[in-house]
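ok new one. same drill as before - structure tokens go in, u give me an amino acid for every spot. 183 of them this time. try not to just spam alanines like last time pls lmao
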């Protein structure tokens, strides 16, 4: 099972306002790489600093998403699916940023670890801190790499708990129809 766990932090309400990205690549059940990027959003106005602590001064000299894409594009290759906690959000951010960069977004299924935690462990609430507490996963919430790493660990824990590891790939291929997510 090969996948990429992602987490975006945004500066404002626009899905194109990514200001941080965490990527954790998993190959055959082992973490292959961990990467964190600060991203210069298209606007200097930060609404969500109180959540993630990132300010314009932290990102003004960082690449905007179009400049970052050539460096991260290969992370989306050779994987079966993208995992994210609240996949609808991260998918919308990735699509908006790709659209702004003039590149097609990755054509991959998404596995939402919120839905996974609800269906597999019957967790409610299934926010990231609650799921991490349930699974004893260390978390620095709203730090993009920590959130992506936690998401990867959730998928790996689910793989151990499910009798058939292919079920996770099947969940991703189904495109989370309950949330209306598809490729």
């Amino acid at each position: 099972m090969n996948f990429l766990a992602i987490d975006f932090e945004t500066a404002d309400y626009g899905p194109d306002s990514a200001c941080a990205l965490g990527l954790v690549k998993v190959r055959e059940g082992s973490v292959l790489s961990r990467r964190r990027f600060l991203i210069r959003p298209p606007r200097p106005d930060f609404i969500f600093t109180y959540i993630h602590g990132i300010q314009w001064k932290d990102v003004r000299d960082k690449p905007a998403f179009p400049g970052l894409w050539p460096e991260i594009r290969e992370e989306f290759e050779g994987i079966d699916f993208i995992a994210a906690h609240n996949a609808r959000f991260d998918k919308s951010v990735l699509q908006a940023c790709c659209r702004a960069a003039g590149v097609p977004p990755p054509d991959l299924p998404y596995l939402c670890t919120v839905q996974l935690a609800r269906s597999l462990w019957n967790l409610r609430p299934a926010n990231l801190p609650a799921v991490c507490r349930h699974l004893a996963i260390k978390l620095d919430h709203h730090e993009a790499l920590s959130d992506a790493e936690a998401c990867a660990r959730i998928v790996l824990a689910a793989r151990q708990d499910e009798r058939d590891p292919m079920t996770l790939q099947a969940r991703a291929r189904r495109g989370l129809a309950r949330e209306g997510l598809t490729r």
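The chain has eight helices and five strands. and btw The two ends are 18 Å apart (CA to CA).
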